[in-house]
Design goal:
Elements (H helix, E strand, L loop, with lengths): L1 H11 L3 E6 L5 H8 L9 E6 L16 H4 L8
Antiparallel strand pairs: 1-2
């Protein structure tokens, strides 16, 4: 529930937030850079920023057509 309250508070300040699962591959770098104790388990991260102009909170992002986002290559041999 804490992330929900944080999200609402940030929205009231005109900010956007995105809760993401955490990738443990970067644990050592995160611990070193921000002084996070090594006995902490990092589970998620909240990305905070200013919403893109014209975006609608809760709206679906506009995406390029699949043909422009995905390339399929056939291996030879």
């Amino acid at each position: 529930m804490h992330h929900y309250y944080l999200w609402i508070a940030l929205e009231a300040l005109g900010l956007g937030a995105n809760l993401q699962r955490y990738n443990p591959i970067i644990d050592a770098e995160v611990q070193k850079t921000w002084g996070v104790p090594s006995n902490w388990k990092l589970r998620a991260q909240v990305v905070i920023g200013v919403p893109k102009e014209g975006s609608v909170p809760g709206g679906k992002p506009r995406k390029l057509p699949l043909e422009q986002r995905l390339q399929v290559k056939q291996m030879e041999g």
